[in-house]
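fyi for ur records
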Amino acid sequence: MQNITHLTDALFQAQLSKLQDVLEEEKTVRRRIDELETRHKAVGRLDAPGMGEMRQIGADIIWQGWVDRKRRDLQGELARCLVRKNRLMLNVQKAFGRNAAAQKMQAEAKLEDEAARALRRAIEDQALLLMKAAQNRSASPLKRPVWRCL
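which gave:
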């Protein structure tokens, strides 16, 4: 039973590790999206003399297109990451349930073993007492009262 508990715990830890990897990936993608938005807002607030020239040659439109494509790519990556996270959460829940059930079964088996051991000890102790009592009876004969009839 202990082997099953170790196995289910190892499977649970493996699923948890996979989930941690995906959570880290999600965190990275969200950070990249935030950085992109921060840069985009910073560029939008620029009011430098050179911005007029950039607008004339269409660089601002190219920049906006790049930002839109990059945002779309990152959001797609985040969506795929969230789907993997959802699947792994289900796997972690199943693995946790299996591990908890195995631990409960192991604890119950241990209690049953302890109860059986205590019962065997009690039976052995009782048998030993009965054997000692039998030896004591055979070693000293009982004195029987002598009845006299008058």
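The chain has a mean pLDDT of 87. thats all i got for now
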